[in-house]
Amino acid sequence: MSLDGAFFYLKQRLFHCLSLRFLTAPKCPQNERYDYCYAKCQKNCSNWDKDIPCNRMCFPGCVCDEYRVRGPDGKCIRTSECRKHEESEEEFRCYKPDGNTPFPGDSRKYIKCTNYIPSVEECPPNQKFDRKELECVDIEH
Fold it and tell me: Coiled-coil ranges per the record (predicted)?
């Protein structure tokens, strides 16, 4: 690619990025605002007091207003409203933004992390959570 071609490409990309910023932002729920980059890097009840890694790639979406975090139900709440998960005295933390983790002491349950927000899920009847595959699988008879 020539220098002129590279400049034209960068100019197109910059225009595309800038033009996205001038579009009307989608409406967000109460206690949230639209952000063009940090929707994947939000704090929640399990990590509000920790530094969380955030990759440099922008991901647009609704984020919690200042001094609020994602609660267990996905709504933005004050950190003082955060409570330990109802399923156990143990507090679950997500160390990756998305994925599944085995639930301690119960082979039918697992912890599902979505944008660092943990929730306890249960496999359908006749299935158990496979610790290697990290998903529900049929119980062998």
Answer: none
Q: Would the CA dihedral through 113, 119, 123, 129 be positive or negative?
A: positive
110-134 mean pLDDT? 90
**For residue 91, what pLDDT band results from cuts at 50, 70 and 90?**
low
**How far is it between the farthest Cα atoms of the chain?**
66
| Residue pLDDT, tens place only, 12-40 | 444 444 445 556 778 999 999 999 888 78
Q: What is the pLDDT of residues 54-88, one digit of tens each?
A: 776 788 899 999 989 988 778 898 888 876 434 44
Q: Which residues contact 72 (CB under 8 A, 6 or more apart)?
A: 45, 83, 85, 117, 118, 119
Count, residues in the chain: 141
DSSP 50: S
Q: Rounded to an integer, what distance in angstroms lies between the CA atom of residue 29 and that of residue 80? A: 20
Q: What is the dihedral of CA 131, 110, 38, 24, to 10 degrees?
A: 120
* Burial status of residue 13 (CB atoms within 10 A of its CB: 0-12, 13-18, 19 or more): exposed
